[in-house]
Each structure stands twice: as structure tokens, then as C-alpha cells.
Amino acid sequence: MSRSAAGYDLTPLTEAQIQEKAAGLTPEERDVLLDHGTEHPFCGTLLDNKLDGVYHCRLCDLPLFSSSAKFDSGTGWPSFFQPFDRDHIRYIEDTSLGMSRTEVRCPRCDSHLGHVFPDGPPPTGQRYCLNSIALVFRENR
Q1: Which residues take part in binding Zn(2+) (predicted)?
Q2: What is the rounded CA–CA span in Å between residue 18 and residue 13?
Q3: Is 127 exposed, middle or buried (0-12, 13-18, 19+ CB in 10 A)?
């Protein structure tokens, strides 16, 4: 079993486990998480969320981003300057759409989350631009 510094199991799910978890997804959730789609800007349910908590992967529930790292990028998608744990994000070179970008995926279930860009605020200078539909927010209580 592979564990992150934060203590979470990062063992990749099998294809059968992914399909079992995906059985309850809506067509829109499947399009983003499994088919690498993108939701329209300014329509995501988590864009304006200001509550204190953690954003988890919709498919496998791995914690991905803390509300303390969220900022308003003005792009229309929830944006964060760093992940919950650096091992909780997988980076893939994306050359689709005729440009070079860095796609971010969940390391456990390989779900597409969004992209990361080098134009974020301090301290990291990173902007993780995510699809709300790829996330589940769990409020700290």
C-alpha cells in the first residue's frame, strides 16, 4: 500500500473499482471525470464557496485541496494555489486543443480534475484551475 505524507492510501484503484464507483455518476460527471471534459466557466457549484473545509475527489473521495488554499482567480473555475498534499495530485502533459498544458488528475482513481498554470498567487505561484463537478466539498465542523 502506498501512503501519502498526510496518511492517505494512494494505491491506484483497479478498473473494476473505478467502474463500480462511477456507476452512480451523472452523464456530466462522467464527461469531466472519466472523459476529461470541462464544465463551462462561472457555472460550477463550488466557484463561490467560502466555507472552511476540504475539497475531495468526487469519484474516490481522496482529499485534494483545502479551502485555506482557495482564491478567486477570476477565471470562472474554483482555483487553488497548492494541493492538500503534494502526493494527492498527478500531473500529465496535455497537448490537446493545440496547446501545451499540465492536466491534474487524482492519483488514486485517475479522474480528470482540471489543469495547473504557473500564474497563481504567492507562496507557490501556481493556479490549480478545477472543475466543480469533479469535487465534493466537506465542511470542517
Answers
A1: 57, 60, 106, 109
A2: 6
A3: buried
